[in-house]
Amino acid sequence: MKEKYLTTNQGAPIYDNQNSLTIGERGPILLQDVQFIEKMAHFDRERIPERVVHAKGAGAHGYFQVYRNMEAYTKAKFLQDPEEKTPVFVRFSTVTGGRGSADTVRDPRGFAVKFYTKEGNYDLVGNNLPVFFIRDAIKFPDMVHAFKGAPDSNIPSASSAHNRFWDFISLTPESTHMIIWLFSDRGTPRSYRMMEGFGVNTYVWVNAEGKAVYVKYHWKPKLGVQSLDRHEATRLAGIDPDYLTRDLHDTIAGGGEVEYELNVQLMDIDDELNQNFDPLDATKTWPEDKFPLMPVGKMVLNRNPENFFAEVEQAGFCPASIVPGIEFSADKLLQGRTFSYSDTQRYRLGSNFLELPINRPLVQVNNNQRDGAMQFGAFSGQVNYEPNSLAGGMPRESPMGTSYVYRLEGDVTRRKISLTNDFSQAGDKYRSLSKMDKEHLLDNLIADLMHIDKPIQQRVIENLTKADPELGKPVANGLKGQG
C-alpha cells in the first residue's frame, strides 16, 4: 500500500497529530496552533442542524442554592449567599447517537448546567462519568469520527460494538480508564435522576484576594446512583427508546422535583507536581481520600420546558462561559473546549445564539457587537466602538477585578505530558468494583468485543491486562469461548 501522510487543508505536512501546541508540555494551548484551529473548526461544522455530539437530549429548569458562603475559595457571587436561588437550566444527553437514537444505549451522558447568575451566565458542561477518553482536545474530532457512523455506510448508529470504535480505543491507551467506567453498568444509567455528574476538567477558583486553587466538580443525585444492566438497557432501547427522556419529563410534570448536591474537590496549585498523576489530565480522577469531597450546594429541577425546540434544542452551552472567581486551568482538553463549543454553536444556531431566550443572560449585556445572522437586538445611536466620546464613553471597561496571576515559561512545542500512568487508575477502578459489578463489566466487554476483528481484540486485551491481569485474562478467555 502506498504511504500517505497527514497534511493540513493547505497541503502542509502534519508532523504531530497527537498533541496541541503548548507552552511547555503542560502549558495552555496557543492561538497560533493553526493545525488545531483548522481541525476543530472543520469538525464543529460537520453537521447541520443537529449537534455533532450530544444530539439527543432532555432538559429541565430549576434553581441552585449554595449551602454556605464560599468566599474563602472563590469570589463568584452565586456561591456566596445561602438565601439566594440562582436559576438554572440543565440539559442531559447521550453523546454518540443522533436525535432519533435510543436513550439507553451504552454511552457517556452529558450533564450540562447553565447558571443564570447576577454576573452573567456560567456553564458547567460535563458528563456522568468522571474521566474522558482523551487528554488533548486535538484528538476530539478523531475520537468522534471513530465512534460515529462509518463515512461509507453510516453504520453503526449509537453503538460501540464495531471495529472503528475499538480500533481507536485500542490505539489510545489513555482511554483505558474511561472504558472501565463506560462498560460498567454506569454506562447505562436507569434515570437521569439517578446518575452522577462531573465537570471532568480541572478549573481554577479565585477569591477576592487573588488566591487560587484547582477545583473539580461532582453532582450527586439525591436518589443515589442506579443503573440498568446490559440486557434491560437493550430491551428498553427496543420498546421505549425515549425511556430516560420520558422519565425526567413525567416526574416533573407529575409535581415531582429532581435534586442533586454539588460537591467539589480542591487542590492547592503548589501541590500539583507532588502527585503520581497529572491533576490536569482529564483521563484521571483525584483520589477522594487525599482530596475529599466538600458539599457546596443543591440543585433542584422543578419545571419542564414549554417548547422543546426553543429551550432544549436551541440551548447552547460552552465551558468558556465563566464568571469572576472561576477561571481555566491549563488542562489541554478544557483549553480546546473553550474554543470549540462556542464555535460550533455559532455555526449551528447562528452568530447571535446568545440572544435566544434560553441562552440570554438575565443581566443586561453591553458591548459593541452588532449585525450578523439572525440579529434581533434593538440598537440605536451612532457608536459601536470603544473608546468613544460620542456616547459619553459608554459602555466602558469594568473596574479592575482580581484574577489569578501566574507566570508561564517554556518551549513552544507539541508534546505529550510526561506523567501519563495510563493504566494505573484503570486498574484501581476495576479492583474497587464489587463481585457483581466486575461480572457485569466482563460480560459487557465480551459482548461488545465478540463482534470485533481479532487483531483489534488483541490490542484491547493487552491494554486491559496492563490495567489488571485479572481483567484482561477473563476477557480473553471469554472471547475464545465465543469462537
Architecture blueprint of SSEs:
Blueprint (H helix, E strand, L loop, with lengths): L20 E3 L10 H11 L12 E10 L19 E9 L14 E9 L2 E8 L12 H8 L15 H8 L5 H7 L14 E2 L4 E4 L5 E10 L8 H10 L3 H11 L4 E11 L25 E10 L4 H6 L12 E3 L3 H17 L63 E3 L9 H9 L2 H15 L4 H14 L1 H13 L2
Antiparallel strand pairs: 1-12, 2-3, 2-10, 3-4, 4-5, 6-8, 7-8, 7-11, 8-9, 9-10
Helix pairs in contact: 1-8, 2-3, 3-11, 4-9, 10-12, 11-12
What this model shows, in words?
Helices cover 27% and strands 17% of the residues. It has one domain: Catalase core domain (Catalase HpII,  Chain A, domain 1), CATH 2.40.180. The protein is of the alpha+beta class. A hairpin with a 2-residue loop joins β4 (109-117) and β5 (120-127). The protein contains 12 helices and 12 strands. The mean pLDDT is 94. It has helices at 34-44, 140-147, 163-170, 176-182, 230-239, 243-253, 308-313, 332-348, 424-432, 435-449, 454-467, 469-481, and strands spanning 21-23, 57-66, 86-94, 109-117, 120-127, 197-198, 203-206, 212-221, 258-268, 294-303, 326-328, 412-414. Strands 2, 3, 4, 5, 6, 7, 8, 9, 10 and 11 form a 10-stranded antiparallel sheet that branches. A two-stranded antiparallel ribbon has the order 1-12. The longest helix has 17 residues, at 332-348.
